[in-house]
Design a protein that fits this description.
Length: about 90
């Protein structure tokens, strides 16, 4: 009984493709706990690879979000520069 409950708790984050994508989406906002990556049985290599992939995913997401912020700020600056040159406020 206890083992079944532990299996259900540990499979919540990555039970299916949809659950995996949902876990990664909420992980972008920092709402995922590292307990989500615990595996029911001792598979240290699998846990290491999973945590490594999650770390790489998080790093890439930070870079992408910073790149989007820079692009939006650049676009806003160009829009303001054009409006000032045309004297449209």
């Amino acid at each position: 009984m206890v083992e079944l409950l532990l299996k259900e708790i540990f499979l919540i984050g990555f039970f299916s493709l949809f659950e995996s994508l949902q876990t990664l989406f909420w992980g972008t906002f920092g709402l995922i706990d590292l307990q989500t990556f615990q595996i029911y049985k001792k598979h240290t290599f699998t846990m290491f690879i999973g945590l490594l992939m999650y770390g790489v995913y998080s790093s890439i997401m930070i870079i992408v979000l910073l790149n989007m912020l820079i692009a939006m700020m650049s676009n806003t600056y160009q829009y303001i520069a054009v409006c000032i040159s045309l004297k449209i406020y």
